[in-house]
Amino acid sequence: MKEIKLKITAAMMLAAMLLAGCGESASSPQAVGGQAAPQADTEAVTETTEPEYPHLDTSSLDFGGKTISFISPEWGTHRYQYAEELDGDIVNDAAYNRMVDLENSLNVKMAWTWSTDAETHNVVKKSVQAGDDAYQIVYTHCIYGISDYATAGALYNIYDLPHIDLEAPWWDLDMMKSFQIGSRLHYVAGDLLLQGSTLAFFNKRIAKDFGLPDHYQLVRDGLWTYDRFIEYASSVTLDINGDGVIDRYDQTGYTGDLTERTCDIPFFCGEHCTKMGENGIELVYWSDKIVDIFNKTYKYFLDPSVSNGYFRFYSENNQGFEEDLALYTLSTVSGIAGMREYEVDFGVIPGFKYNEEQESYYSYCWPCFVCVPTTITDPELTGACLEQYCYKSTELQTAYNEVLIRGKSTRDVESLEMLDLVNSVKVCDIGASYLGFDSSFHKIFYCFYELMPEKKDNIASHYEKALKGVDKALTKLYDKIMEAENA
Length: 487
Prior knowledge:
The chain is an alpha/beta fold. The chain has helices spanning 2-21, 42-48, 90-106, 117-129, 146-151, 173-178, 204-209, 215-220, 226-233, 261-268, 288-301, 333-337, 379-407, 413-424, 430-435, 442-445, 447-451, 459-486, and strands at residues 66-73, 108-115, 137-139, 196-203, 252-257, 274-277, 280-283, 307-310, 326-332, 346-349, 363-366, 370-371, 426-427. The strands form three sheets. Strands 4, 5, 8, 9, 10, 11 and 13 form a seven-stranded mixed sheet that branches. It has a four-stranded mixed sheet with strand order 2-1-3-12. Helix 3 (90-106) links the parallel strand 1 (66-73) and strand 2.
């Protein structure tokens, strides 16, 4: 937990400096979700002056100019992972400097290949099948190909790579362990990835116009719940053009693409699709609580008189949050950067709790991963490069979080506090990442999306019909990975 504490403390210090610069005194941080927030006092000095975590000693490593080859789909935040030259943008330049450091510190030549999701997957699989050491470090889509690599026995056990220190703060060990099946670690996550944690935006102008409570304080007090979201989102509708119909040109409580966001809502509310059990992956999705969450989601988001939410494969000409006509939208951390060019006065908060009794806020993370093919011929080279690359990625994370998102995009210091909270409560789901695109598991993970666009509210029968196929898919995944492990 120390790393989370440091990040939140840094945000508090930044908030204090920014407020002081505006001629205001910074108030003490409030409790967040029922837990006391860290204080911006002498404790921060104590924390930040502790000795750095020891990192790889590169002075004794020299790989004689060998090439280390990366391949990645060119999508989402992956585009910030590599830069061929300096261009003055701080995130681009951090990526470029990371490459230069890797090459100079280990005497290697870095090669980077951009591809699509499908092409990356097919190229790597063919390379492994041919026994070809073409790529040593592979970036993945958050779902596509995850299970295929692992079940085919195509991935090197990260635990066996030399020079990797998974206890180091630049690695996300908790996330990695949550995806471990058997004794092999197929994928790594950490600062070398910019993860897509989910959160909410709120329009401060609309909230003020309708006299709604301070959303930041609601979060701090643990009172930001699904029922309050629906209550507030249902109260701000305005027929702006006076045509008697609420549509994309009018003001409502919500706008945005619901395709993935309806997957996030159960996780906001503390639910999961699956968990790792003693004898395999267990489906844990069904409960009265899930039914209640679905009914609330169905009723609110499909009511055009209060919501401009849409499913992108079913509608066109949709309203965007940037049009200043909606109180809320759900997005990801990376979506904050997309708001930089717009004038909307917005704030950032975590997704809502199910109720006030819920222990914490949660943010579903659409986790991308990095893996290593079994065909690598120089584990020393791959392990050292992967460790050094992730270690130096901390600087890129700082540039992305502190400047691209924080410095240029968020409109107030409270959003920085909320962003740190979101990043500290990430959750993910082993079944969703390994099997999110499986035809059977898709019916569970995407069940809100499967039903709502078709105006179907029979979630119980939908679940029952999918159950047999999902159990089969989970069993097959587990058995095939264990078979590959024991081969």
